[in-house]
Amino acid sequence: MDYPSFWKNASLRRKRIYSIMFMFVIAVSLTLIGSLVPLSPQFAKEINDSINQTRNQGLENGTLAPSILLNNFGLCLAMFIPLVGAFLGLFIMFNTGLAFSAAIQVQSTTAVSTPLDISPTTAVIALLVFGLVFLLEYVSYSIGMAESIWLFQRLRQRKWGELKNAAILIGIVAILLIVGAIVETWLISTIG
Fewer CB within 10 Å, N or C, the chain? Predict the structure, then answer.
């Protein structure tokens, strides 16, 4: 297979960055595709109720941040499984889009006639924080999926040093997801 010149001329570090960027674009695209899938009102309500139940239990128990972290980190760790993890991650990204679609569909059908009472400043801050959480989580997932492919290729070549790279990347992902869980919990408890 003849690779493009930007890939052939790139250093190993740059190839990893390209791989992560490529997986990021695919992950976001699959989430968007998943969000466009039409859902029956009943199925959308089931998905939304499940998400709300988890969120409400976490808020009541004061365990929302650890719950978010364990969920996201567990999913991300699965994405590091050589080759299989990349496909699992893409499936998860598609399902995330379905969850977004369900939440929007349920919220739009149950919206009250009075608008939310939040200031424009609060709305902008909420959007920025939501964007930060989205970026932290999707970069983490992209790292996991890209490393899944790198691990598969390197272990097939018996280059065991890739396990060290995977461990370092898992540590980086853990830090990103810890920050993301804390910020997401703050956003949920502040905005609701």
Answer: N
Kindly give the interhelix angle for 84-110 and 12-35, rounded to the nearest 10 degrees: 40
Q: Token pair of 15, please?
A: 């190839």
What span, in angstroms and rounded, lies between the C-alpha atoms of 113 and 132? 30
Nearest to 141 by CA among 183, 95, 192: 95
- Give, in order, the Cα–Cα distances in Å from 47 to each of 6, 73, 119, 184: 42, 21, 29, 19
Rounded CA-CA distance 189/192 in Å is 5
pLDDT at 113: 47
pTM: 0.89
**Cα 18 from Cα 6, distance rounded (Å):** 10
Closest to 94 (Cα-Cα) out of 41, 158, 29? 29
User: Pick from 85, 90, 74: which is nearest to 149 by CA?
Assistant: 85
Instruction: Extract the tokens encoding 50.
Output: 């499940």
Written as six digits, the tokens of 169 are 């990347």
Return the closest-CA partner of residue 135 out of 27, 63, 32.
27
> Tokens 């977004």 sit at which residue?
100
Low-confidence ranges of the chain (pLDDT < 70): 1, 111-117, 192
pLDDT the model gives residue 4: 85
